[in-house]
Amino acid sequence: MGHTDVLARVLAIVALVIATGSLLLGWRTYRRGGALVKVTARKHSGKAVMYANGPIYGDVVEVTVSNRGLASVQVTGILFEVHGKEGARETDAGGPTLPMPLDGFHRETWEASMSALLGLAGVSGAAVARVRAGVELGNDRKRFSRRWLNLSEADLSK
Question: pLDDT tens digits, residue range 40-58?
Fold first, then answer.
């Protein structure tokens, strides 16, 4: 009688561990099933932007949009939000033509002119504009980078 009780207890514990592992795996798969969009932005001074008639050097803010989920998502616009100003504004950015689908586990990069962003922020001279990048998705959702960039005319290459 004691041997049967121990065996039943061990089987119950093994079943509980397997059921918990299955639940965690199902939750993880559920969370990854959608589109997980992440936006990052970096500033580059004097970056070579290639065109058909040779390289042109410019000061740009590089916006990278990553989809770490399984589902694809439609990217319809590149946005920039200026700290202290209401709302985000869409700007012309060089890169893939918008709107475009962004498949799961893929990333795309766009570049916006740093001087255009300074004009959008309305700063000049030694003033600093705090700007963050974002994207507009096909279902009218917006995602922004967590990090704010400090832009000024000092960042522009001469």
Answer: 999 987 766 655 555 666 7
**What DSSP character marks residue 122?**
T
Could you tell me the sign of the dihedral formed by the alpha carbons of 117, 120, 126, 131, in that order? negative
If one counts the domains in the chain, the total is 2
d(CA 30, CA 73): 16
DSSP string, 81-97: EETTSSSEEE---BSSP
103 and 48, same domain (yes or no): yes
Task: Looking at the structure, tell me whether residues 72 and 150 fall in a common domain.
Answer: yes
Note the Cα 17 to chain centre separation in Å.
Answer: 36
* pTM of the predicted protein model: 0.78
Distance (Å, whole) CA 81 – CA 8: 61
Q: What domain range is 72 assigned to?
A: 37-155
